[in-house]
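As the work plan foresaw, the team has encoded backbone shapes as discrete tokens. One protein thus recorded appears below exactly as we store it.

:::
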Amino acid sequence: MKNFLVLIQQVDRRWLYLALALSIAVPILVPMNLPLFINTETRNFYLAVDNIPADKIVILMPEWDPSVQGELSPQTQAVIRHLFKKKIKFAIIARNPQGPKLAEDIAENLSEIYEAEYGKDWCNWGYKAGGVLMLQALAKDIYETIKKDTRETPIENVPMMQGVRDIKSVGVVVCITGYVGFIDSLIGFIQGPYNVPLVYGCTAVSAPSAYPYLDSMQLAGMLVGMRGAAEYENILGLSVSEARATKAMNSQSLGHMLVIFLIIIGNFAFLRRKRGAE
């Protein structure tokens, strides 16, 4: 036993790095179904999107760029899967220049799986500057504010936009962003005045600032980082091969379990040797 305790404390750290690398890589290469608890804010996000009336559209605002792509791309992908699966029409628009293109790439890839058609099931309004002034104008007259989509088609000629003139035709606004404060203007100029449900996807580090809005019911739901995306995938019933965030969370969970195990066994060996020395 004594030799075993000594061996544990003298193990080459390179073996520990190898074990950590394997614990992260295995869930990506081998399908695993580790248990995942679904938080209330994630379930409410799902329900807000799932329950919108058939005659309304969703405005999807991917306010993110490659710097936060690791967390927010899986969230955007999960939401678009849900919209395509339910045949809910949606329009992409953002105040971040890179967001609409990144979200469009995701939608293009998934449209083949769900047999969705651009213009009929979804469209891209693109990047729009103007901040709160743009939001105010959008709420009152979509045709006049957007004018053309990213493919230079007049908005009134896009099939899914027939009869969609103002914010009254919007069932839910989905804002996915890594920037604190982006939802403040949406609450002040869209959700508050027009009582349009607003849901929020964010990075894990920016989530604490949004919980007061959840408590006040100004946000109908929230996805928090990679975990939120994995929970959403779980609700959608995606297979492991489809669930990008779930794979990442499985890797993270196994990595954390390994680190916790090493901390416990290392401290156990240290305390036993200390007592033996006394």
